[in-house]
Design brief:
Elements lengths: L11 E4 L10 H8 L7 H9 L5 E8 L2 E12 L17 E5 L10 E3 L10 H17 L3 E9 L4 H4 L5 E12 L6 H5 L4 H15 L5 E6 L5 H14 L12 H8 L4 E7 L6 E8 L6 E7 L10 H15 L4 E5 L3 H6 L2 E12 L2
Parallel strand pairs: 4-6
Antiparallel strand pairs: 1-2, 2-3, 3-4, 3-5, 6-13, 7-12, 7-13, 8-9, 9-10, 10-11
Helix pairs in contact: 2-8, 6-9
């Protein structure tokens, strides 16, 4: 069976959040590894029940304390865009898609003391250890790994015979450390973009039908937010496996986490939600996870996506963050808004 119970290996646990309770060490692991709110066990559980594939969480232990963790989806011929994961084995032959749960901006693994490029051979050893554990867990039907969000220094670590490595969309990183104000950040942008953002800010702040607020997830209306986020899901029709719509149950669990923030745009009179940015907080590098806005033809406002970058920069500077990870898509636009575009790679690693 696929991870419906803990692995019997003494130095590892292979967990399925649908059936396994939160491990006793999970809060300590999250804090030590800097895992954001989407790694909260209640969130992982809700997401796993609403996924197309079984979601496997593999923890490496040393004396009962975690020294590493990997999240992956088990993908087989039974994986279908219109079908939820079965409660048991969803196919005997497949591969593991190693990525962060519902967040394509950061890696899906953490190992104590590991940082890209610092210890040659470290990632190769970690991948080999993980592969060995999962072969014992899944059997001979486990044919390979797809490892996403590899940094440039990590490419050589996973390279080898019969391994395919390709660049994927770069990740935008908006640096705010060293800036004292939003104006400091604006001063780093090209003159035309700076002028445009200042004009947009005047139009938004001077419009009585638009209120802007940064709030905690717990303050959100889950139903209203779920409806708004589906506008974003409707736009993504260009990918092989369409993203599932945002489900209220998993969103409610995510918003309940104390390290979730939203940048909201509302009509103060009617209370109508116009747009929202969902941010997963972090001591140094919060992640801009999702953006969605009411279409202009349905009563939405123009240029709010550009405006939200100023709001996030202001919040990040005030909170003393290093910056905000602003994710993939539209690299030229994000670069014009001051983001560093960091190369990322994906590797297909066969298992024999």
């Amino acid at each position: 069976m696929v991870a419906t119970k803990r692995s019997e290996q003494p130095d590892t646990e292979v967990l399925d959040p649908r059936f396994d309770p939160e491990p006793r060490y999970w809060a300590r692991l999250r804090a030590r590894a800097g895992l954001r709110a989407d790694w909260s066990w209640p969130v992982l559980t809700a997401q796993a029940w609403l996924a197309r594939t079984p979601q496997l969480v593999t923890v490496f232990l040393d004396g009962g304390e975690p020294r590493g963790v990997v999240w992956a989806a088990w993908v087989t011929a039974g994986t279908h865009r219109y079908r939820f994961a079965a409660s048991g084995r969803a196919g005997r032959v497949g591969f593991l898609d190693v990525r962060s749960p519902h967040n394509s901006a950061v890696p899906g693994w953490w190992f104590a003391g590991y940082a890209p490029g610092e210890r040659p051979g470290a990632l190769r050893a970690h991948v080999a250890e993980y592969t060995s554990v999962m072969r014992r867990e899944l059997g001979i039907g486990f044919r390979g790994l797809l490892v996403r969000q590899l940094a440039e220094p990590e490419v050589a670590e996973v390279a080898g015979r019969f391994r395919m490595i390709r660049p994927i969309e770069p990740i935008g990183v908006l640096d705010t450390a060293g800036h004292r104000s939003r104006d400091d950040w604006l001063a780093t942008l090209a003159k035309k973009r700076r002028w445009e953002l200042r004009k947009i800010d005047r139009l938004v702040t001077g419009n009585p039908a638009i209120g802007v607020d940064v709030r905690t997830g717990a303050e959100e209306d889950v139903v209203a937010l779920t409806r708004l986020l589906r506008h974003n899901a409707d736009k993504h029709k260009d990918v092989p496996i369409l993203p599932l719509p945002q489900f209220g149950a998993s969103l409610a669990k995510l918003l309940a986490e104390p390290d979730v923030r939203t940048v909201t745009y509302d009509d103060p009179v009617t209370g109508r939600r116009l747009a929202v940015a969902l941010v997963l907080d972090h001591p140094d590098w919060p992640t801009f996870r999702t953006w969605s806005a009411l279409p202009v033809e349905d009563g939405g406002a123009r240029n709010l996506y550009l405006h939200v970058y100023g709001e996030m920069a202001h919040w990040s500077i005030a909170a003393g963050k290093q910056g905000v990870i602003v994710g993939k898509k539209m690299p030229k636009l994000k670069a014009s808004l001051g983001a560093r575009m960091v190369p990322q790679y994906a590797a297909a690693v066969p298992v024999r």
